[in-house]
Amino acid sequence: MSPTGPGQSAEVTGTSSERTTERTPATDADKRAERATDRRTRVTVLVALTANLVIAVAKAAGGLLAASPALLSEAAHSVADSLNEVFLLAALRRSRRPADRRHPFGYGKERFFWSLLAAVGIFVMGGCFSFFQGVEALRTGGEEELQGYVAGLIVLAVALLAEGLSLVRALHQVRREGGAVGLRDPALRTVVAEDGTAVLGVTLAAAGMVLHMVTGQVVWEASASLAIGALLVYVAYGLGREARDQLIGEAADPETGGRIQALLAAQPEIDSVEALFTMKTGIDSVLVAARVDLVPGLDSERVEEVAVRIKRSIAGAVPAAHQVFLDVTDRPAQEAGESPAATGERGGA
Predict the structure, then answer these.
(1) pTM for the full model?
(2) 205 and 74 in contact (C-beta within 8 Å)?
(3) In angstroms, what CA-CA distances link 102 with 250, 274, 286?
(4) 146-176 and 69-94 helices, crossing angle to 10°
(5) Average pLDDT over residues 230-240
(6) Tally of CA atoms within 13 A in the half-sphere of 160 that contains its CB
(7) What distance in Å separates the CA atoms of residue 265 and residue 207, rounded to the nearest whole number?
(8) How far is 243 from 32, CA to CA, in rounded Å?
């Protein structure tokens, strides 16, 4: 490495073989843990998919038999959830593909993409159809016979049981994965949101049917359908916003960023940290890019040794830091602070 002169910067990244040799045990352990977590999430998604497919058929049959807008809205909800579970299974399979030349940072963001599609599915297939059913019921009215009410309520009772079991399974995994930590996985977060919404939606549909049966006023069931639509749109918006933030390059959580900042500041060879950037490249992978000003008097070989050691320290302290890039500079702090890397221009360093 050539010496770094005034006003110049040298990006020291180290070789991939050095990273692999240094982190092989931790990396292997991390991969085993990630595979085990994915297996549990896959089982959770499959449970939800099976429940939703069965319930969708039952709700559709019951809704047609009872001519119930609320029940038909719930059928659309279950169809949307079933399609979304297929999206999530694709996300689990595709997001773990290894990095290649075309995608050097891996495929971790696949999970966020498929989660966004799931949110769109909830909005279009669930929310919009529910609004349509509610408005149509208010416009045309509706009369149901006693056997229609009974069939619809039986279907809803079975659906509530199945959705409740699926929700319990999802919440159990969330608790096993560490609560809020487990909800960082968009696949698991989507299943929890879908099952929780389904339980509440079934309750609203049942209440609407009972009130319709007691009062003879279809407005109750239509209102339940509209409420289910509003609920689905709200959930879809929340899931979509989360996926959007991660797709466009969300920074690591403040705790992780603070830990990296403190580690860099504690290095005796670093005079100041001019800029630090992090970006999530998957549910458990983070890209770290830092511009640091070293203390005067270090020759080029020493600079390289220090940079490699610092990178390894970051990787050891933050296992999610799969890619670490250091831009070593001896420019004055004010000049570096005004650089595009510090100001965010052109996407940073």
Answers:
(1) 0.67
(2) yes
(3) 21, 31, 18
(4) 30
(5) 88
(6) 15
(7) 59
(8) 26
